[in-house]
Amino acid sequence: MADSLLSKTYIDGIYIPAGLLVFGTIIVKREWTLYAALLAVVLGAIKYLRTLPTKVLKPDVFQEFELKEKTVISHNVAIYRFTLPTPSAILGLPIGQHISIGAVLEQPDGSTKEIVRSYTPISGDHQPGYFDLLIKSYPTGNISRHMASLAVGQTIKVRGPKGAFVYTPNMVRHFGMVAGGTGITPMLQVVRAIIRGRAAGDTTQVDLIFANVTPSDILLKEDLDALAAEDAGFRVHYVLDKPPAGWTGGVGYVTADMITKWLPAPADDVKILLCGPPPMISGLKKTTEALGFKKARPVSKLEDQVFAF
């Protein structure tokens, strides 16, 4: 986002050069001081406008962004950082929405086909100049395998924003979240926005159930634990299908008992957010309805009490 008008960026880049221009004119040719001052204002305004965030996403047009950095998390998970056109550029992605990535890929029969998949960045518009994607590659995944094959300097095609969910501060009193695997990405985006908004009065409470197979499958665990330690209004509850000895978290699939224990009870100011593999989401929609939440629609809308990304 734009820096404070009293930040070092503006002092060093605008105020000091403008002052030197005017002061130098006074010394050399005092009668030109007014013109120097006007020139300083014009040049300063131009430089200021260039520092303002520029939204780059277009909903109906694919644009190419270059891979700047790839951070390997495990044998099939990595964080991909893509460069935006300028250091002050932002995606312009509302909290809770996602982008589409497209690529023309060869199919098993030798033909080519454009494949499009949706992903939620783990970075935000408060971090100009780039965006980060956390992606797990699967043997049968078209786009995820394509992403894993990318080298630094290559590009991807992106369009957006997409999605029916947009977070606004204090839209509910309490979020209950259930994520499986890479379904953590939209949840993390919302949680970070809530915690960043505390100083401005966001009082939203969040309880997150994060389900995985083994401890090594828990993506961004350090980040989640750090957020929970930093903010008393955010709590994370881990569930493993194959837990190690001594595991004290949940075991197996996410059950009605876990939801009752860890997530808020049904109320008008409570919303449940779901993201994960389709079979998991299908089962959770039935479970939440049985627990008294309003029945989830096949395709979620913002006003739904149970929303699936």
TrEMBL record:
MF terms in GO: cytochrome-b5 reductase activity, acting on NADH
Main location as per UniProt: mitochondrion
Entry's Gene Ontology cellular component terms: endoplasmic reticulum; mitochondrial outer membrane
Entry EC number(s): 1.6.2.2
Metabolic or biological pathway: Protein modification; peptidyl-diphthamide biosynthesis
Keywords recorded for this protein, A-Z: FAD, Flavoprotein, Membrane, Mitochondrion, Mitochondrion outer membrane, NAD, Oxidoreductase, Transmembrane, Transmembrane helix
Location relative to the cell: Mitochondrion outer membrane
Membrane topology: Single-pass membrane protein
Annotated residues for binding of FAD: R117, Y119, L134, K136, I143, S144, T185
Cofactor(s) recorded in Swiss-Prot or TrEMBL: FAD
InterPro entries reported in the protein's UniProt record: CBR-like, Cbr1-like_FAD-bd_dom, FAD-bd_FR_type, Flavoprot_Pyr_Nucl_cyt_Rdtase, FNR_nucleotide-bd, OxRdtase_FAD/NAD-bd, Riboflavin_synthase-like_b-brl
Membrane-spanning ranges: 9-26, 32-49
Enzyme class: oxidoreductase
The FAD-binding FR-type domain, residue ranges: 60-168
Subunit structure: Monomer. Component of the 2-(3-amino-3-carboxypropyl)histidine synthase complex composed of DPH1, DPH2, DPH3 and a NADH-dependent reductase, predominantly CBR1.
Annotated function: NADH-dependent reductase for DPH3 and cytochrome b5. Required for the first step of diphthamide biosynthesis, a post-translational modification of histidine which occurs in elongation factor 2. DPH1 and DPH2 transfer a 3-amino-3-carboxypropyl (ACP) group from S-adenosyl-L-methionine (SAM) to a histidine residue, the reaction is assisted by a reduction system comprising DPH3 and a NADH-dependent reductase, predominantly CBR1. By reducing DPH3, also involved in the formation of the tRNA wobble base modification mcm5s 2U (5-methoxycarbonylmethyl-2-thiouridine), mediated by the elongator complex.
Name this polypeptide is given: NADH-cytochrome b5 reductase
Species: Cercophora scortea
